[in-house]
Structure formats: structure tokens, C-alpha cells
Write a structure and sequence with these properties.
This protein is mainly alpha-helical. It is built from eight helices and two strands, in the order ααααααβααβ. It has two domains: 90 residues, no CATH class; 58 residues.
Amino acid sequence: MNSIWYNKLELQIEEKLETLHAKDAKFYRVDYFLKLAKEVDRLSSKCVECKILKNNIEYTADDLDRLLSGQISYRKEYERKLEEIDKHLRKTHNIYPKQYFLYLYTFLGMLGGLILGFLISMIFSQSYLKVSLLIGFTIGLFAGRIWGKVQEKKHNTI
């Protein structure tokens, strides 16, 4: 159940979004901003930093129409505030964005597969370099995705 603070914040942001195009709201990740605000609200009773972040979230929500107005300096300010909240939740509370581990381990799997394919081709025969790179890449891709999905289930994501 949402708190009064969060419900008020959500209504305030929805009012501001009426002037913003739907694609812009998606591009600026306003829905993710609301998810972060919800988590900060939930954790603010136990965490002093989250209480401070609640104030920052309120100021950001008050100023949202200006921050998303299109000027680069304002958008960067909004992104910095979003990153500050996200970083605190990751480092302090181990809450990660959805698909964080999936993307991370997929990349690591592909990289490891390429390296493994290269090493195998160097050991056995360099004439099969392309084939071994392709096979290593494919195996690494699948292994990384599976590994990432397992990690997604183990960790808190929003």
C-alpha cells in the first residue's frame, strides 16, 4: 500500500506529465523515477539518507516541468538526481534496476565466449578462427543470459 506522501507525489507528477509528450516521458524514464521514489519512501523509516532523498525527490517533482523542458543542462541535472537515488539504492539497500544483471552477465558471457573462442583457435588451428569466435560468442551469449536470469531472481529489482 502506498503512503500519502507517495500518492501526493504521483498525482503531482501526473499533472506535470500532461504537458509532456508520452514518448518524452518514456525517454526521460519518469516511470522509473516514480519506482525509485516508492522504494525510497518504503525505506525512509529505517534509513536517514532515504529521508534526505525524499526531500530531493519532492524538489525534483516540483521542478519536473523545467527539468524536462528540453534544455540539455536541465536534463543533465535530472539525470544526475535520478542516478544519485539509483546509486544509493544499489549500494546501500542492494536494490537494482530491472534487467541489470541480465544485461551485465550477457555482456560478460559474450566477452568471455569470444576470448575462449580466440584461445581455442590459437591452440588448435588458426584457420578456424572465425568459426571458433562464432561458436564462443554464441555459447557465451546463452551462458551469460542464463546466468543473468538466475542473478535477477536472487536480487531485489525494481
